[in-house]
Each structure stands twice: as C-alpha cells, then as structure tokens.
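2024-03-11 09:14:02 DEBUG pipeline.ingest accepted 1 chain
2024-03-11 09:14:02 DEBUG pipeline.ingest length=208
2024-03-11 09:14:03 DEBUG pipeline.predict start
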Amino acid sequence: MISALTATSFFFTALLLGYAPGPDIIFVLAQSAVHGARAGLATMAGLVTGLCVHTALVSLGIAALIKASPLAFTLIKSAGAIYLLYLAWLSWKAAAVQHQGKPPEFPGYLALYRRGIIMNITNPKVTMFFLALLPQFCDPARGSIGFQCLQLGILFMAATVVAFSSVSLLAGRIFSRFNRTAKGQMILNKACTLIFVGLAVLLLVSEL
C-alpha cells in the first residue's frame, strides 16, 4: 500500500505529465477541435481505458517481457502506426467530402471511444514509460510491488482524466466558432490528417 505522501506527489507528477505535449493529448485536442468538447471527452475515456491495459502489463510484469523482445515492440508499434494512418485517411476523406459542399459525417462517440483505446494500447512507448516511472514510486517495505504499481496506475488515470478533460473543454470552446463553417471544418480535418501522419511517423521511428 503506497503512502499518502507518495500518492499525492505521484498524482501531481502525473498531472504535469498529462499536460505535457504528447501523442495522446494532441489526439484529444484534434478530436475536440473537429467534433467538439464531448468528442474529446469520449476520446479521453478511450485513452484512459487503454491505460488500464498498460497498468495491468506493468503490474503483472509482462511489460518487462515486451521490453526484452524487440520483435514484440516492433509489431505493436507498427500496428499503432497503421491505425494512425487509417485515421489520417478518414480525416482526409472527410475534408474531401466537405470540399464538395456536403455536411461532415460525425463518427459517433462510441467510435471515438474505440479509437482512443486502440491508439493507446498500440503504443508500446506508454508501457515502457509506465515500466520506467511506476517502480520509482514503489517501496518494497510497503508490500507487493505489483499492487503498488496498480495503485499508481489508477492515480495516473485520474490525473489524465483531469488534464485531458480540461483540454477537451478548452479546445471545444476555442474552435467552436471556427468549426461552424464548412471551410473551417475542412481546414481542421486537413490539419488532423497531417497530425495523424506525423504521429504515425514518430511512432515508427521510436525505439526501446
């Protein structure tokens, strides 16, 4: 069982990391800008659900096995990059439809939730990050390291909810007026295309 002091210090550390520029927060920002704050919140829920998987992997010690297997790492990140390129194609397709004067198609909150899950669990860098971060806040004298990692993972998810929710609401409000016009929506979708392609490239070139 982690101490109250450790829990507090870890939560604020995780909160700062949540606001730091990274693939997940950029993904939430993009969805909020294009589809509104609720879409960003749905995406955030998916990303947090994905964090449950990474927390479990670290708590059970499976993350160490992934780190020791370059092939597993490559396969997972390749799957993530392919999915990001698929999302880039969807954004480009939406922009093309809007260019023809047709109304944009909203994918639905459940679809955005699924996208968040898939994007998060196919990024092995998150697992490696958890593997490096969580044990630093564990104390062998306070019981099972795996259980302490589980507690820390839950705290990290709570901090992520706070950070990503605020970003979703802010982005939704900032881009709401810009997103009311067909031209504005087209520009945002083209921007999302570039963002997804960029994230895919960054994921592919990442190393253990």
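2024-03-11 09:14:41 DEBUG pipeline.report The first helix runs from residue 4 to 19.
2024-03-11 09:14:41 DEBUG pipeline.predict end
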